[in-house]
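Quick start: what a row looks like.
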Amino acid sequence: MLRDSPVDRVSRFADSVSASKAAQLLWLIPVVYLAQNLAMPFNHSSEEALMADILRSIRAGELPFRDFIDIYGPLNWIVPGVAYTAAGGKWIAVRAAMIAVQTAVAVASYQLLRRLSSRFHAWIAAAMIVAVFGMAWFLHYAPYAFMQIYPMTLGIIGCLLFRTRSNAVRRSVGVGILVGLALLTKLSAGAFLLAGSLFVCFYLLPPISPIHYREQPSPVAAIQWRIFWVRTLGLVVFGVVFTLFILPHFELGYLLHLSLPLLLLLWCAGLEERKALLRWTSESHLEQLHYRLRHTALVVSACLLTVAGVLLLLWPLGMLGPMFEGLSVVLRHVDYHTPFDAPIFGKPQYRFSQAHWQQLPWLASGLLAVVLLLERSRWSGASRAADSTIHTTTDTTTHTVRRFRLLALFAIAVVAHHVIYPTADLGHLLQSFVPWILLLGLCLHRLEAPMAGASLYVFRAAVGLAVVLWIGAIAELPLDWERYRWRVDDDAGLSQQARYLKLRSEHPHLYDYGDFSSPEFQSGLIETARFLKEHAREGDRVWVLTPYWSLYFFADQPPYGGRYSWLVYSMTLGRLSREGFEVITRNEAGTSLVDPPPRFIVDGPEWASAALRGEFPEIDPWLRTVYRPVLRSGSMTIYARPQAAGAPPAPAR
């Protein structure tokens, strides 16, 4: 019996793999691309180090709010906490969990857009989402709450866009549940998702049951006029209140830049109201109003029940009281708003923010306006050419549903986009990135609807080329497979940073993050952490005056401030005053930062420690009279208080 040759076996295997299975294999490319973030260096000046300390506390049995101050919702720590604990305290497991979330978001976005458009535009959108997630940037591989909001956002979009007569109630309940979970993960993002969902339910839901149209022009009933003006006034009030809420946190020019899509949304909703006023009978108008009110109430009720249910589960754990008390005090005293002042050019992430991201809402809004104008001209022409029965045809019903999906997706993207009001940085800008990309893909699909033959191929080729160039401008590909040998964990942190220096010198264009990634700065950071790890004994307190909190992580030291370490970190950024700290902590025993004084004080560049020096004027006299420098490396200096020295005198304030 003759055996098949290897070539024959490979050929048979290739024949057995269908086109769909081959397409599924393409998902290995984004998975490998996203996996490079497993090897990125631990970020030294962001909340990633603070999050590492929080997850260490959770692994030790402590809980947010009950045992330490936190600003995120309690649900934010479930996924990273389980990953970190299950992996035995390895930070790489947290990054792997975030990459799993990113992959799920990309796949879900593809599937969602595939149902709304074509496979081509679904792949385009998924590729753009993966390219952004794969940027070598700590915001994408640290357990930030905005990353874990994405699945809930996609779930809300799916529930709203794929409603039918049979599942409308279940979909509204699903939206409410997902919004409630989002609120308990990140309050600001959940609040805007709730506002967007309620806007869609009350102003944009298409008629599920048959609508009776007026066959001949006739005077509009008085009740319809009243409903029209009340709902139109509601749109105006929504826009005014929304704008006044975020106005204090924006430079006026940028607020106008941001709000034009909101004005377009309000205008589209107003046109829908006018169209209903002129075409529907009084009975249909009242029926649709009741329908929308009913489903708006379902969303609100499901949201409140979800929040209440989760809070009841937290109550036996002792988290509920401290959470309400802590957040109510912290949010009053911590200035976590950073208004967007003026465009910033120079660093790659800011160039991306200015040149690409800020134009995405305008691009999607412009495409939406073009699509709506083209469809309006087509349908108005058809209406003039036919009689009134066109309003009851299947084609018109399909057109109404498609129009609703377009406007509903636009509404979610516009309202969710304003989540950047607390801190208008790229991390917050990207929180509404996925809805905008989905809308972009859907608009492009609708633009190509009347195209066929060569024109369709030319259009898709142009879109594909533009996306490839865009991805090429922001994608960061690994040029050295040595990066995949890195392991970001508690034991190899310092050696990993040293390897980072070597690779940065070989590929500087990949790691151009300003002074923070200069060899001098990184070398000083490493030497400082090594010294503290070798000389700081148990019970010694180490106070880092700068935001470089990875020093605690690499030196294996507890962050200064104990359960209030997040507040101390906020003070290093100038977002919390000393008086605010004392009010929040109520001067509890053991929470004082200067009594007893720390054993070691780590100082850095003057600008980096300016915030704490301003709040604690006793620091400078201490460093001159009592403490002595024991290590200077780069821009970092370690001061030690001799064991025999008593507590330094605190100057009168």
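That is the whole record. The chain has 28 helices and four strands. The CA atoms of residues 57 and 63 lie 7 Å apart.
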